[in-house]
Specification:
three-stranded mixed sheet, Rossmann fold, binds thymidine-5'-diphosphate, 12 strands, about 350 residues, binds nicotinamide-adenine-dinucleotide, alpha/beta, 13 helices, globular
């Protein structure tokens, strides 16, 4: 038995592979193109592990995907690979359409051909799990109930539109061809190996460098934060117990405005690494900057279905998860340093210089 993971050198995919091999012996075939967001350093601890087979390649390459399925005969595909950053999708949406839409289409077609040729329990047990986001549902008003699985799709950014398109493809491949798919729509993750373009790791890296902490608009946009290890355990649960054709919303029951996240990070850093940024408190670095165009005001997940039907709940509270995360970044500053020395600097210039 083996599973195929796509995007397993990124933030969530990397955590998923590490957690998987920590908890079981089933091998992982890891297909990742190593874009700017893919980083083999995330997988350094399993570099010599014979249960991990890494292949650098593109999910849009049908011939490659076909040959991997034929050679390794995975019992499941867990599909993380994507372009994942809203701000980048605003500056350049093309790559989002290619990887998120065409890439998912290519994988579904390859999976369908592979699954059609299976027989018996190999066929009935096969799963294609699609990892998606709560952003496909659009933006909530302050008193709206959280997103359920039947909330209408109202994506607002090129990123969320491309993920919405991929979700629709996955649904249609089940409805039309019977491919045994499951989908999870998860809220904002945080934790180790989070690329420092995203809010939480960006704020930690900037604070430690004594740089401004750029809060978009009024900082009152609300996200529902989930520790990455909990997202990974939710996916493992869906893979083991989820019903083909079903969608599961995954969230941390932890809605928080961005400015509160930034204040929490400053307080933790004041405690764990006082004075590194050259200020009495890291809060002095908070700087309000021009808002993101089309910025969604609020996301919140109703995660009752996965709890009721599959028995999953997050293990971490925000307090425990965010402390672990800050401690991880403090202990792994060379990981961030290696990213900051590369082409990532051009992105910082593009996104922040004119704000
Ligand atoms: P990430 O950007 O950190 O990693 C994406 C990975 O995919 C990288 O390793 C990259 O090299 C790889 N990749 C990109 N294009 C590829 C291609 N064409 N072929 C093969 N590999 C390719 O993203 P992430 O934050 O780990 O997100 C993983 C998945 O989870 C995405 O599908 C995303 O939409 C979804 N998601 C993310 C969050 C979040 O908070 N980060 C929340 C909910 C859902
Ligand atoms: P982000 O981590 O990019 O995730 P997403 O846009 O997918 O939710 O951003 C989280 C929130 O933080 C979002 O409301 C935008 C905001 N934000 C800032 O205020 N400043 C920043 O520099 C970044 C990167 C994000």
């Amino acid at each position: 038995m083996t599973i195929l993971v796509t995007g397993g050198a990124g933030f969530i995919g990397g955590n998923f592979v590490l957690d998987w091999l920590r908890d079981c012996d089933e091998p992982v075939l890891n297909l990742d193109a190593l874009t700017y967001a893919g980083n083999l350093e995330n997988l350094a601890s399993i570099k010599d592990d014979p249960r991990h087979c890494f292949v650098r390649g593109d999910i849009c390459d049908r011939a490659l995907v076909d040959s991997l399925l034929a050679t390794h005969q995975p019992r499941a595909i867990v599909h993380f690979a994507a372009e994942s950053h809203v701000d980048r999708s605003i500056h350049g949406p093309g790559e989002f359409m290619r990887t998120n839409v065409t890439g998912t289409f290519t994988l579904l077609e390859a999976a369908r051909a592979h699954w059609n040729a299976l027989e018996g329990s190999a066929k009935t047990g096969f799963r294609f799990h699609h990892v998606s986001t709560d952003e496909v549902y659009g933006s909530l008003k302050p008193n709206d109930p959280p997103f359920t699985e039947t909330h209408p799709y109202e994506p607002n950014s090129p990123y969320s539109a491309s993920k919405a398109a991929s979700d629709h493809l996955v649904r249609a491949w089940h409805h039309t061809y019977g491919l045994p798919v499951t989908t999870s729509n998860c809220s904002n993750n945080y934790g180790p190996y989070h690329f420092p373009e995203k809010l939480i790791p960006l704020m930690i890296a900037n604070a430690l460098a004594g740089k401004p902490l750029p809060v978009y608009g009024d900082g009152m946009q609300v996200r529902d934060w989930l520790y990455v290890g909990d997202h990974c355990s939710a996916i493992r649960t869906i893979l083991a117990k989820g019903v083909p054709g079903e969608v599961y919303n995954v969230g941390g029951w932890n809605e928080m405005p961005n400015i509160e996240i930034v204040n929490t990070l400053c307080a933790l850093l004041d405690d764990l690494a006082p004075g590194v940024g050259g200020k009495a408190s890291y809060r002095e670095l908070i700087t309000y900057v021009a808002d993101r165009p089309g910025h969604d005001r609020r996301y919140a997940i109703d995660a009752r279905k996965i709890e009721r039907e599959l028995g999953w709940r997050p293990a971490e509270t925000f307090e425990t998860g965010i402390r672990k995360t800050v401690e991880w970044y403090l202990a792994n500053q060379s990981w961030v340093g290696n990213i900051l020395s590369g082409s990532y600097r051009e992105w910082l210039e593009k996104n922040y210089a004119s704000r």
